Amino acid sequence: MNEKRINILFASIAFLFGLVLYAMTMAPTVSFWDCGEFIACSYRLAVPHPPGSPLYLLVGRFFTLIPEFLIDNVAKRVNLISVLSSAFTVLFLYLSIVHLIREYLKSNEGYTRYLPYLGALVGSLTFAVTPSFWFNAVEAEVYAPSALFTSLSVWLILHWSERSEEIGNEKYILLIAYLTGLAIGVHLLNVLTLPMVFMIIYYRRFEMNPTTFTGLVIVGGLLTALVYPGMVIGIPLIAEKIGFLGLLFSIILLIAVLAVAVSNRQHLIGLLVMSILLIVVGYSSYMMIYIRSNLNPNIDENNPETIEQFISYVNREQYGEHHLDRERAWKESPNGRNYASASEFFWSYQVNYMYNRYFLWNFTGMAENGVDSRMAELRTLFSRDFSWTLKLLFSLTPLLLGLWGAYAHFRRDWKHALAVLALFLMTGYAIILYLNQPDPQPRERDYSYVGSFFAFSIWIGIGAAALLEQIAGVFKNSDRGFKNILVGGVTIIMLILLPFRILAEDYHMQDRNGNYVAWDYSYNMLVSSEQNGIMFTNGDNDTFPLWYLQEVEYIRTDVRVANLSLLNTPWYIQQLKDKEPKAPISLSDDQISRMIYPQPWETRKFELPIVPEPVRRAEADRYKLSLNVDTVNAPATMSFEVRPKLNMPMRGGGTIGGLRVQDLMILNILATNQFQKPLYFAVTTSDQNRLDGLKDYQRMDGLLFKVTTIPGWSIDPDVLYDNLMNKFQYRNLNNPDVYYNENIIGLLQNYRSAFFRLATHYLSTEEQGRFNEVLQKLYAVMPPEVIPFTNAQFEEVMTTFAIMADIYPADSLNARNYNLRVLQASGEVGLSYKRYDMAEKGYQGLLQSIESQPESEQVQDYLRSFFRSPQEYSQATAERKKQILESAAEQIRRQLTRVYKESKQYERGTTFLQEWLQIKPNNAYAQKQLEEFDKLKAEE
What we know:
Elements lengths: L2 H23 L9 H10 L9 H11 L9 H31 L10 H14 L2 H6 L6 H20 L7 H15 L9 H12 L4 H54 L3 H17 L3 H8 L12 H8 L11 H7 L9 H23 L10 H5 L6 H10 L1 H16 L1 H13 L2 H7 L14 H25 L5 H31 L6 H11 L6 E4 L6 H8 L8 E4 L6 H9 L10 H5 L5 E2 L3 E5 L4 H15 L10 E5 L3 E4 L5 E5 L1 H13 L5 E4 L15 E3 L3 E4 L9 H11 L14 H23 L3 H14 L10 H13 L15 H13 L3 H17 L4 H8 L5 H6 L2 H25 L3 H14 L4 H16 L1
Parallel strand pairs: 1-2, 1-8
Antiparallel strand pairs: 3-7, 4-5, 6-7, 8-10, 9-10
Helix pairs in contact: 1-4, 1-5, 2-3, 2-4, 2-24, 3-4, 4-5, 4-7, 4-21, 5-21, 5-22, 7-8, 7-9, 8-11, 9-10, 9-19, 10-11, 10-13, 14-15, 18-19, 18-21, 19-21, 21-22, 29-30, 30-31, 32-33, 33-34, 34-37, 37-38, 38-39
């Protein structure tokens, strides 16, 4: 088989590997974060968050038109963009590695002719399964198409370098320029590929020396800056200053300059001007944002329908001022106090935590907890048992092979290695410098650095080829057939140790099949609302999937979603006021335009003086009926305390309390609404965002808290029961084959909280049948084996509830089946709800374990719960630990005494107290209680 066919075969394998893998693991519907927004905006050709991705939306709109009989839902159709983009990215990575190996590997005889293709296959397939790239490949996000533009630009400039002496070679550079303009309409990350492009052009057109290389750095930097921020921000500024006709004239002027340059054979000037024009043509996709905003779609973020607003949109002014001041970023970070200086903040957080950690995720694997990096493990590489060390060494193979590849590349072809290094640094550490991220971030940011992981994967491919070359060189005197078999065998081993091992380890984690959490959770939020409700949501994760359901699937379009983060901006307030379904806002348009800054505020009561009588009467009747009570506290006025939410600096120094715009708007909507429309807060909104005393007027109806007129009305059991038991969807939350990450598992605890509130109500009203029904439903749809608890104390109480509801056998309540904290929770819960049999069993089991086996691991684990930290526990003396256990035993005995007294088991209580006094003859409490028990028995 000739080399061309080998190349085509291996390139096809790389492409099909990615295509099949990503198609098999693609999300079946909408996912969290920006996916819901991008799908909805693609379907509606609406305006997403700044700086927008117009080309992505146009392509996304095309994909939404795929017939339903081929792909059954819109979200899945848009997800397919990422699948195809990622598969082609793997293909172009393969082709780029082949080219770079060919650059230095001059021999093409014998086994050496296979090395570029074998190495490229190893490198490209390894990149295909890196977790950051794979994660983006299966959902509707811009990062997969952005990676495609990066890979295509890299391959094109390498392709040009092979043909740089041919007539018409400039077409490849012009195509790169056009792709750069198009890529701006997806994401700006592709601009960081330009330094590598300039370096490859420099190698082919100039003799390398200090003078020309300095010129490259200066000119390359200026040309990169010409694209961003120059053209990206400059073109709208030109339009603002001289209008669209002036902008058109500027473009015509450039065309005239191009014509003059071509006629005078000024090729370099002509190439530069033509490149600028093509970038402008690609960038023109942004006209979609301007045009569609003027048509006022339902999603119209920042409302960029004027040049001024469009410039603000492109500049991302909504997110505040961007700066590169490291000192300021450190001091303004909420967690800045964790760092001693700006330099420590930069290294420990921005570099180490926000990049090195991600790099190790992709090339050494995640730590076993799935979050922490390998750094701590690497520091103890040879200090553990052999099997652990061997396993970790296997996980290091991608990193080691990539480092070997970088070394081999610099040794054999340092010029192109330097170009790859430029790509690696610009798409990795340079982004760190530019973003200047504060601590903490709302989500993991590894997707931002996929370009640098792409570059490192080039070296993995080169490292694989170099290793094969070295191994075959050792056997250079062997016959040709043996060397070919050897090279093939080692390649198979590398494929097993790198891509296929990573694939096997990460497949379950990356597989989105059966994951409907975002869809179901958002649907359950919507059905928690009454007709024409207004729902305050916290941020992206609990808003964008709602937009998808409303804009694409037309579910509960009567509900107005009010995002609290966006509620700090005048344009969003205006849209809430004007667009259907409208939010009740009393401010004039002029007042709204001035709602930009926080307002001074001192702690004081906010009063809603008029609660309409029909509303008050209806809620009072509902309260009495739902809770089966005769009286209700239904005040004629609504009054609650509101405290400042931030500290505002004063001119003369010091600070004054203030309210955010979002807080003022909540109060305005509340006062204007007068309970005409139901108001809700999503359960994901923090207490800080639910306005202090207003929380007393909020009732949990599922995944929403409804604002009521009656303080202290925590649940309406009938409404909550209907939502949890009949309306909500919980698809695959009981399926162990579906993977849920820690963030999703944390979010799903909101279901448990709602079930807990309802179960607690039925327990307190002694409705055992309903209590059992609710708990059995919870454990059926969301068993802890699939969705673990995230709070140990909550788990202990819920386990107790599960035993009470016959989900777990009652006779299983002992130290053999549960940890001692569960026994303690059983005692406390049983005593609180007069389930004395359970209380006695829990406390007795706990007491017996503490007193009979104080040194056991189970008791020591229980003992740890009395210390604030593991370090404090380890530093405590044996005497201190003994005292704590004795004190715990004393408290347990007192609780058992209470159990016997309240359950009127006076004989058993007497026996228990007598045994206690045999152990502690001078215990005054036990003596006094024994006397009381004797009296109670006598009175009985």
